[in-house]
């Protein structure tokens, strides 16, 4: 296992990715290389179908590239097995999805505590930590509500609390405000950016919203399966 | 900092949910699965119920059969004497006595032997007539059949020519019901003769191999039978061999000996113990056959579990993806669904076992059998096989769930 560029939390080297569709396969990313230093906030923008989610899934170890290398926190995860990838996701990554992806059977508190339970932390401590995170996103009074009983903005805040509970060094958000009205969207982005500022959590956000992209320190444009650094407008 | 993080990034030491959480989660999930879980549970419950109920009923049936035959000593030999069916019966002389002392000498393993002569007749006590069996035998009979006296004494070798009689328990009870109390010293009239009651027997129970149950008979000395029927004929010889090792070998010797004393007659010897063992074997076989029937029901229940689990995995694909994104390893996902299948099966098994026991109890109760006896093997067997069924049929859906990659699972179906 080879470690390089210790200051880069994310490092992608010559990533090519193709989805198998029936007999043929369709390339989505061509020879993509870039890195994100620890503590940076970074937007990924691009047209629909350009490959933004694909890129984020590769960074988040949810998928494996067809070729190229993925390094997280200096560790080469390219050939890691499913188990190591799961453990790495749990230890260093927090996910925020467009559709919240809370488990409908669990209340807010247990949804937030779930990553810690997989980490092997006993339930009482996990719930205590979950409550602290719910307080941080301003939802401690909703801890026993099911997702169905909450608004979209509240659900996304629960999801952010869940992404934060494991104290990750990397937050990955795929269109986190896509299902929210613009005021709630600004609140959520403000929350993510404050985490980035105050705790140095590296933040990568896929978005269609140029207003949101502008609030990030850096903006990466995906176009026809290749990336280019985009200056802020 | 990143270097430190890298060292512990993928170490699996202490990773994974606690066992408590592993068990609590499926229970919670199944509770919310509601009616569908109940249907799958029902299949397993019916299977487990069938196994437990049928094994218990089989067990009790076996016990009941054994109870009926319990009166038969395990060291008894019964030689039945028959007139051959060839039509030369007229020519055969009647045999009314046997020298049992000679028999004991000829076959030393036999410790006691009693020939039987049987007839039925009216017996009259204090003006009340009763139609009963009259059984002629010798002084060895109580020893051979383990008969116990309630009152008085039994016929002895000195009674051979006296007009003494011993009453079976049911005979005394029948007169008692008619308001006549029979006791030693009473005189009863059988045929044209008066006999003096010298003893009354305790109930001895059933023995289907005997030509007549002693409980329902009046016992007379063998020689005294001539007073009641003109030409008495020995129909059985009972013998006892307490040496279990030679019991089977004694049988042909006894047959030969009796054939020698009663030429021309057909003699066959039955050993109750062998009969008993055969019956026990047959009844066990029957129990297993019934349990096999239960297993088929279980199999059907298992397919129900598989159906629910396949649906469950398909419906919760996104949940699987979320859990994987949050750090669930393939084995955590497999365990989650496998345990759900097991909890489903175990709940069904417990419910089924309880109902099965109640059914078996009710069956035994309403069959009028003796007290319900609990089959020790039935519960572990029924519940164990039900849970194993759940495990087996839950395995493939759980493995399918674990094999999903996070992106596959998270993608909209
Ligand atoms: N599992 C898949 N199998 C086949 N093709 C896929 C799969 N996932 C994505 N694609 C294709 O890859 C391309 C990029 O998809 P991706 O989801 O990365 O786009 P995106 O930039 O996130 O788009 P959007 O902004 O609409 O979310 C699309 O053309 C899509 O059709
Ligand atoms: Mg997308």
UniProtKB/TrEMBL annotation, chain A:
The keyword Nucleotide-binding applies. One of its GO terms (cellular component) is plasma membrane. GO terms for biological process: response to antibiotic. Keywords: Antibiotic resistance, ATP-binding, Cell membrane, Membrane, Nucleotide-binding, Transmembrane, Transmembrane helix, Transport. Pfam families: ABC_tran. InterPro entries: AAA+_ATPase, ABC_transporter-like_ATP-bd, ABC_transporter-like_CS, ABC_transpr_LolD-like, MacB-like_ATP-bd, P-loop_NTPase. GO terms for molecular function: ATP binding; ATP hydrolysis activity; transmembrane transporter activity. Residues 10-233 form the ABC transporter domain. Belongs to the ABC transporter superfamily. Macrolide exporter (TC 3.A.1.122) family. This is ABC transporter ATP-binding protein.
From TrEMBL, chain B:
GO terms for molecular function: transmembrane transporter activity. It comes from Allochromatium humboldtianum. The chain crosses the membrane at residues 37-57, 285-314, 335-363, 369-395. GO terms for cellular component: plasma membrane. Pfam families: FtsX, MacB_PCD. The keyword Transmembrane applies. Its main location: membrane. This is ABC transporter permease.
């Amino acid at each position: 296992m080879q470690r390089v560029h210790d200051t880069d939390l994310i490092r992608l080297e010559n990533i090519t990715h193709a989805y198998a569709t029936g007999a043929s396969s369709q390339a989505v990313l061509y020879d993509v290389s870039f890195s994100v230093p620890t503590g940076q906030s970074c937007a990924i923008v691009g047209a629909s179908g350009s490959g933004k989610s694909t890129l984020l899934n590769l960074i988040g170890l949810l998928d494996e590239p067809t070729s190229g290398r993925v390094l997280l926190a200096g560790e080469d995860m390219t050939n890691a097995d499913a188990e190591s990838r799961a453990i790495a996701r749990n230890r260093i990554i927090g996910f925020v999805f467009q559709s919240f992806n809370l488990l409908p059977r669990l209340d807010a508190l247990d949804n937030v505590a779930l990553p810690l339970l997989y980490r092997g932390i006993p339930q009482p401590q996990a719930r205590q930590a979950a409550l602290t995170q719910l307080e941080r996103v301003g939802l401690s009074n909703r801890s026993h509500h099911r997702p169905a009983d909450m608004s979209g903005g509240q659900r996304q805040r629960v999801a952010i609390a869940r992404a934060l509970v494991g104290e990750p060094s990397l937050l990955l958000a795929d269109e986190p405000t896509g299902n929210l009205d613009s005021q709630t969207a600004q609140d959520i982005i403000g929350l993510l950016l404050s985490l980035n500022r105050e705790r140095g959590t590296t933040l990568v956000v896929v978005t269609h919203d140029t207003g949101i992209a502008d609030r990030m320190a850096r903006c990466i444009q995906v176009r026809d399966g290749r990336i280019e650094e985009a200056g802020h407008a | 900092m990143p270097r430190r993080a890298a060292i512990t990034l993928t170490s699996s030491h202490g990773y994974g949910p606690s066992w408590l959480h592993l068990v609590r989660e499926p229970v919670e999930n199944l509770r919310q699965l509601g009616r569908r879980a109940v249907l799958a549970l029902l299949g397993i419950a019916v299977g487990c119920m069938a196994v437990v109920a049928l094994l218990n009923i089989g067990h009790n049936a076996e016990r009941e059969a054994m109870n009926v035959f319990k009166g038969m000593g395990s060291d008894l030999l019964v030689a039945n004497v028959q007139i051959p069916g060839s039509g030369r019966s007229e020519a055969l002389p009647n045999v009314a006595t046997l020298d049992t002392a000679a028999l004991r000498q000829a076959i030393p393993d036999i410790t006691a032997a009693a020939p039987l002569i049987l007839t039925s007749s009216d017996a009259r006590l204090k003006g009340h007539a009763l139609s009963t069996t009259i059984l002629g035998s010798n002084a060895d009979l109580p020893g051979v059949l383990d008969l116990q006296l309630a009152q008085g004494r039994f016929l002895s070798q000195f009674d051979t020519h006296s007009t003494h009689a011993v009453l079976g328990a049911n005979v005394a009870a029948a007169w008692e019901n008619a308001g006549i109390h029979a006791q030693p010293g009473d005189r009863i009239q059988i045929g044209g003769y008066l006999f003096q009651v010298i003893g009354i027997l305790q109930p001895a129970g059933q023995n289907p191999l005997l030509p007549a149950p002693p409980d329902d008979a009046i016992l007379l000395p063998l020689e005294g039978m001539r007073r009641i029927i003109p030409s008495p004929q020995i129909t059985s010889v009972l013998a006892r061999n307490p040496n279990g090792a030679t019991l089977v070998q004694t049988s042909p010797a006894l047959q030969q000996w009796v054939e020698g004393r009663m030429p021309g007659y057909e003699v066959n010897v039955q050993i109750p113990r062998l009969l008993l063992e055969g019956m026990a074997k047959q009844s066990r076989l029957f129990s297993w056959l019934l349990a096999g029937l239960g297993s088929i029901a279980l199999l059907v229940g298992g397919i129900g579990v598989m159906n629910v689990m396949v649906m469950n995995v398909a419906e919760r694909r996104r949940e699987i993806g979320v859990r994987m994104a949050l750090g669930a390893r393939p084995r955590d996902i497999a365990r989650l669904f496998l345990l759900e299948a097991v909890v489903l099966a175990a709940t069904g098994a417990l419910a089924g076992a309880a109902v099965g026991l109640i059914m078996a109890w009710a069956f035994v109760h309403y069959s009028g059998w003796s007290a319900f006896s609990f089959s020790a093997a039935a519960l572990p067997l029924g519940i164990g096989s039900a849970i194993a069924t759940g495990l087996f049929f839950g395995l493939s859906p759980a493995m399918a769930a674990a094999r999903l990659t996070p992106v596959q699972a998270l993608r909209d179906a």
